[in-house]
Amino acid sequence: MALTRPTLTRRRVRALAAVVVALAALTGAIVWFAGSEDRALDGACDGVLPVGEVRAVLGEDAALDVTNRTEGAFGDKAAKSGDKTAKSGGKRANSLTVRCRIAAEGTGHIAVTIAGSPRPRAEYGYGELYAAVPASHTLPVPLGNGWSGLFATDTARLGDAEDGTATTAVFLDCARRGDSLLITVETALRGATTLDDPATRPDFVRTATATAEAANDHWGCGARLGTPLRSVGLPVNEDEYEPLLGAKGTCAAVPTASRSAVSTARETARDRAPRESCVLGTREGSPLYRLEAYYGPYAEDARSQYTRDYDYENVTPAEKPAGRLGQSAYWAGATCPRGAESALYLIRAADADGETRRRPDLAYERAALAAFATASAQHHGCAAPSLPKG
């Protein structure tokens, strides 16, 4: 028996639309219907999405699907939708969270997250406070040109299936003491567009910097902005190591170690990046230690996660400026200007497996952390770091 599709009368259309709108209201999401594409783009990400840049990246004539969600508040200005609570206890916090996603069939998608910082304490210990930046197989590189930001990908080799996917993060240190905005944009482009092409690489970051400019004005942040980016470096792959003695970036000043066989480094430039990495390895490049520096929201996020993961020890980066995390890592901290979140510096051994380690060179770990933290703090204008004792 043939099945016939029921005719959608005007009354049924209204009823269907009402159900969809009700569901969207329950989830806090706004989903735009076909035929309202321009209106959807104009309102996406609380109105700060750069429509021209999005069209240029995804295609001028591409049909776009737009989803959008805005909640919370930043400083004294509430978001257009969502709650208007901007305080947590006696300490001001920023609950603003904005998410929008624009997808073009056959081309790719752009997903944007905007978060105010610092976050309410009630959010601590419940997953990541901010959108993650991939750094498992590669080291994120700074944006440069006066931007405090990162360009990152989890692609270990150019030509992999994810070679057309990258994440750009832009940190806005607002004029209001202690407040900041973090804009994180994932761009995924299909087809012939790859990270290996320096001419198209800026396509992966232009939405993030343009969104940052609009957000800076929209929420009255007043941060110092960078200049347009015409070139972007590649994240550092696992096989791109060099002699540690010749390091000039994030690994500069870190000593070698004969006992631990540390002689090579994987590094990036510093260039105002809100997160820095330095990987120390053997002569063949096998990783031995990883050093990390976190600033602003990234420092806040790391402390929140370590508090959750190590709360049974009652000694964490959230409670003391420096110390040792079990048997696997050391941390240091530094006070930074204008009421910003204190910087966090970590060194972790690559062979750390819970609490089990073979002949750890603790003196070297503390010396490497001290050199790394001191150089990084100076670059960012922070105070001399507090360092762990023996």
From TrEMBL:
Ranges that cross the membrane: 15-35
Keywords: Membrane, Transmembrane, Transmembrane helix
Protein name: Aromatic ring-opening dioxygenase LigA
Organism in which the protein naturally occurs: Streptomyces melanosporofaciens
Superkingdom to which the source organism belongs: Bacteria
